[in-house]
């Protein structure tokens, strides 16, 4: 089977249902153990021939090596018999995404270009702050949703990242930050936002499976309170996200009228603002101590007027939402159809929301020198595939 059968061309501006995609077959035929629940590791070992008792013990040991020690080689697992290590390595694998490029910004922000085992590139960003360190994790290669201000939405091909590729991002960050063995004290990496490439609720099962391991006290051990999932508004999946994953919710609202949101966030044509805000009001676990974040990208003369700010306040009140608003200065990319609002306009917008008693910080762009702004991960991947296309064209 060619790996490319798992890539889907963008079906149009709106892809209304989450599309289940079979896991990509690895070229070497080995079974990936990263990203599997402990019970499934056990089952995999048993079906490879270990007796049930041994399979259970080995699963426990392997899990510990993967998530507490950061090991990616069976030969490092010193409590597993030397003779059994090659047997495991022939059948199973413990893969991290491949690092194609790693960059560090003058402000400490780090960006990685990563590659899947079947050759697709995606990105990950780490943003250190005084009191925390946030890893911005991707859920898909590309995105089917085509928001007009978002560079990821212009990528031609999409594939869901597998659980191993999602958990693997967090593990890679720990490798780079020197944070093994896993311990909760003194970590730089304290928070995770699912705000990299892709729409996490269109890859629900894989994101859920991966985040379960990230949140497992015996796994990577990050509290669900320190994890935020950002969605453009896949309404039918929002309650499941709250019930089954239980992390903080961020919603990419970006506009307060149907006309403007239809234009800039096309999924709005399928799930409108009223439906979206009702789903937010019903989001399990949201309360004043755990607010929903509304992301609002500031686009000049598009969504940034005083009237827009007042309407935003009205909507938040109408739906009685425990909300905070994150104002994101638009990060331009070549060919983008919008410009960023002026600083003055952004401040005026922020003040109106703030004076209504709703927190409305203006997000400071980070890692500008390496194009690392979270959420608009610049697609070096895309640039590369374009270069590849050019080469192909030249060779033809
Ligand atoms: N697909 C999800 C998560 C990834 S995008 C979502 O849309 O919520 C993460 C955030 O970055 C979203 O709020 C997104 O709208 C925002 N974003 C995308 N492109 C941007 C750009 N060029 N400038 C500023 N923010 C952008
Ligand atoms: Fe996809 Fe989010 Fe970008 Fe929209 S903003 S195209 S949903 S990644």
Describe this structure in words.
This protein has helices at 38-47, 52-67, 84-91, 163-177, 204-215, 235-245, 258-264, 273-281, 306-318, 343-355, 380-395; strands at 8-9, 31-32, 92-93, 98-104, 110-115, 121-128, 133-136, 140-141, 157-160, 191-194, 227-231, 248-252, 292-298, 323-329. It is of the alpha/beta class. The chain has 2 domains: 31-93, DNA polymerase, domain 1 (Orthogonal Bundle), CATH 1.10.150.530; 98-386, Aldolase class I (TIM Barrel, Alpha-Beta Barrel), CATH 3.20.20.70. The strands form 3 sheets. A 9-stranded mixed sheet has the order 4-5-6-7-10-11-12-13-14, sandwiched between helices. A 3-stranded antiparallel sheet has the order 1-9-8, with no helix packed on it. A two-stranded parallel sheet has the order 2-3. Helix 9 links the parallel strand 13 and strand 14 (323-329). Helix 1 crosses helix 2 and helix 9 runs parallel beside helix 10 (343-355). The structure holds S-adenosyl-L-homocysteine (SAH) and iron/sulfur cluster (SF4).
Unreliable sequence segments: 1-6, 9-13, 380-386
- CATH architecture of the largest domain, by name, is Alpha-Beta Barrel
CATH class identity of the largest domain: Alpha Beta
- Elements, N to C (H/E): EEHHHEEEEEEEHEHEHEHHEHEHH
Reported for the largest beta sheet, the result is: 9 strands, mixed
Helix count, DSSP H or I runs of 4 or more residues = 11
Q: What is the typical, i.e. mean, pLDDT?
A: 89
Shape: elongated
What would you give as the CATH superfamily of the largest domain?
Aldolase class I
> How helix-rich are the residues, as a percent range?
25-40%
GO molecular function, one term: rRNA binding
EC number: 2.1.1.192
Domain Radical SAM core: 129-369
Family: Belongs to the radical SAM superfamily. RlmN family.
